Amino acid sequence: MDKSRVDSVLTRIEPHLPPGAIVTDENERKTYECDGLAVHRTVPALVIRVTSTAEVAVAVRACHEFAVPFVARGSGTGLSGGAQPHAEGVLIVMSTMRDILDIDPLAQRAIVQPGVINLNLSNEANPHGYYFAPDPSSQSVCSIGGNVAENSGGAHCLKYGFTTNHVTGLTLVTAQGDIVEIGGDAPEYPGYDLLGVLCGSEGTLGIVTEVTVRLTRLPEAVETLLIGFESTDAAGEAVSDIISAGIMPAAIEMMDALAIEAAEKAVACNYPEGAGAVLVVELDGPAIDVDLERETVIARAKDHGAGEVRVAVDDVERGLIWKGRKSAFAAVGRISPDYIVQDGVIPRSRLGPVLASISTIAEECGVRVANVFHAGDGNLHPLVLFDGSIEGQTELAETASGRILDLCLSEGGSITGEHGVGSDKAKFMPRMFTNEDLDTMQILRCAFDPDYLSNPGKIFPTPRLCGEPPRRTSGEHPLQAAGKAELF
Amino acid sequence: MTEELPRLARPDSVEELSELVAAAHRDLRTIGVYGGGTALADHPPGKTPGLLLDMGGLNQVTEHSPGDLILVAGAGATVAELTRVAETGDQELLSDFPADRTDSGSTLGGAIATRAVGPRRIGRLPLREVVLGVTVVLADGTIAKAGGKVVKNVAGYDLAKLMTGSWGTLGIIASAAIRLYPKPQTQGFVEIPGAEAALSSIGSQVAPAAVEIDRSPGVAATTVVMVEGLPESVESRTRQIIDANPGAMPGVEPSWWARRAQAPVTIRASVSPALVPELVGQVARLEDAIGYPIQLRGSAMGVFDLGIGDLDSDPTIATRVVLEHLRSWGQKQLSATVLCAPASVWGEVDAWGEIPGFGLMTTIKDRFDPDGLLSPGRGIGGL
């Protein structure tokens, strides 16, 4: 390892950062070795805890000067290894930038530092009648900067859109350490959609140090239903019918029998006993709409043999219904020592056949698969359960997991709906995209980070060198420019 | 090779489009793209291209799956035709497109490239989120796709968003997958005098689909709130809006709905929603001060078109004054650019102002199209 370059960075930034901001102690650095995907671990060469845009710029400029890679980390809850550190690089910890700078209900805007916890913003905005719509299951711990990096969704994104739909401005520290303001309070700015490409770029195009977000009006009414079905097939058909009835629920989530069993053991959410599948359906909007839609949802569910239908009467009951769903990943830990979460997406109408194929894959690989997913948009979260202490099980689980992603792709879907590619799924990118597609994405990366220092090794399996920045010519043929020829 | 390449071509497939672009690239010919021709008068006119591509041949609907809320079609398919296809499944194209352009044959690729928008901006996903994936042909003829055809996907960079609103300067959109939305059963309109009600309407619990403000020169502004959904709901919410706003009257869709006012110059102004009443007031005062008619129309969410001038006089000076005045608010709160103007005006005013992130945009353009062949001069800031 080229320690001298990291030392050069250290010497350069030390005078500009407060004591305690720089972490060199190996044991302390080790606490940052992974994010929410614990199977990928790397101890960073240096850790910096930043508190301002200026400090980030100082750190990145030094990294750029000495060609040292850097990785930004928010709360470290990501599930694809996006914040996995670089062994010869600097880990820039953003969770120390956690101030809500402004909430302006009239403008429906808030300005936050990237380390602000997702749910804290909603809690602060609630008294004004507003909330921050993206709600990944980790919302009580994940940061808004991380949401921007991953373009996080959550249960409610079918109706309200991903994080990208809720960001109107950003402060970006570029991979060269320059500070650039993009967008602002207004809904539209002219030119290329830089906000659109930065959201979901997984920290590979620079570091976001301030975010202007759109706040969403709290709905007049919210109704949460828990519906038990005999099978995932029946539940899937009910979802199809609800959507073709013209209803756009705020969320429709499905869990299969194994996922229900796990959730029950973990949080005693009291889901219908013996159900082969449950749907959590949330309706929101004007009270009159919610009333009308609830009746349609129940009727369509009954058409497909729905058993128990439970309507939450208050926030406590609503909380309990959601608790089962939102704790499902962690709950699976109760019924299996190890598990892999996948995040593939399929066209929603293919749910039945795909679930059947997943159970065939599970059988063939000798593993169990619990299914929790966003049924409205076809975003599956198969949980492949295994015991890593038994020889060969890890490999079998990985095989099953890979085959599930291949299955999603063969249905015209995606390898990731909301968790991001990170280091975990980079190897699957060539299965979804051609070399030309991937090279085109690299053109964008080269525009932002030609030296390949910002979170390298993520998203793309084989990064390309960017080459010299092209010099723009006039677009005219030299002869034409000289007035010697006319183009026809 | 040069003599084999025509000046005007109408490819029938992505492959053919790719070959044409590759040939133009070898000859360093500039390329213009023609969809429905409904935005040709917008943005600077640009020079006559070395190759003009008529996208009309790429108009097939390749996939329509109402159950998955998706539709995939060639860039040359018209918005009107796609609306008809979506309606067969009781659905609609999620984004509103400007009605005047749709009526004149606006295409899917053109609407995406120019980021065309209509009034329904509240509670709806914007065009950039509705475009799930695109296939583009790059400046050297490379065929590349980005995104996908499922409603949820975060694999790789979102180049579909980069292409949305790029005015054909980064790549030529060959096809796109878009998300559909259930078609609301009914719509209701309420007309409210003045612009003061606009702000409270967008934040109100009646969940309007659109709140539009229209102000003709010398006349007081009118706010029109539109709600949509099930008939009982629309009726009830319409009543709520009328009860909450003095002078409010039930109405029908106004004749100007989703249509741009005709004026020699159109400025696109985008402001923080909190500043909308201030903007409307300022426009009236500016009109008085400079003695020049200014039409204002747009969404209370903060996107307006300002029509400057009448047919009898040169709008250059008025355009310059309005732009300078609006920009004095600061770019954090407001952006103002010229959308449409006579050729003479473009050179005489600062049409773009200071664009946040312009340095990065220039680098992106240089990386994607180093020879500057794609739609030269048609993008913002001369990109």
- Give the biggest beta sheet of chain B: 8 strands, antiparallel
Approximate shape of chain A: globular
Helix percentage range of chain B:
25-40%
Our measurement of the CA-to-CA distance between the termini of chain B, rounded to an integer number of angstroms, reads 28 Å
- Unreliable runs of chain B: none
Give the mean pLDDT of chain B: 94
Number of strands of chain A: 18
CATH class of the largest domain in chain B: Alpha Beta
Model regions low in confidence, pLDDT < 50 over at least 5 residues of chain A: 472-488
Mean pLDDT of chain A: 92
Number of structural units classed as domains of chain B: 3
Greatest interface (CB-CB under 8 A), with counts per chain? A-B, 100 and 100 residues
The succession of helices and strands of chain B, N to C, reads EHEEEEHEHHHEEHEEHEEHEEHEEHEHH
What characterizes the major β-sheet of chain A?
7 strands, antiparallel
Strand content range of chain B? 25-35%
The helix content of chain A, as a percent range, equals: 25-40%
Rg of chain A computed from alpha carbons, rounded to a whole number of angstroms: 24 Å
Strand order of the largest sheet of chain B: 13-10-12-11-15-16-14-17
Describe the structure.
The complex is a heterodimer of chains A (488) and B (383). By secondary structure, chain A is of the alpha+beta class. Chain A contains 17 helices and 18 strands. In chain A, β17 and β18 form a beta hairpin. In chain A, α9 packs across α12 and α13 packs antiparallel against α14. The longest helix of chain A is centred in the C-terminal third of the chain and has 18 residues. With 383 residues, chain B is an alpha+beta fold. Chain B has 3 domains: 152 residues, 2-Layer Sandwich (Uridine Diphospho-n-acetylenolpyruvylglucosamine Reductase, domain 3); 62 residues; 111 residues, Alpha-Beta Plaits, CATH 3.30.70. Chain B has 12 helices and 17 strands. In chain B, the strands form 3 sheets. In chain B, strands 13-10-12-11-15-16-14-17 form an 8-stranded antiparallel sheet. The longest helix of chain B has 15 residues. Chains A and B meet through β9, α7, α8, α10 and α16 of A and β8, α6, α8, β14 and β17 of B.
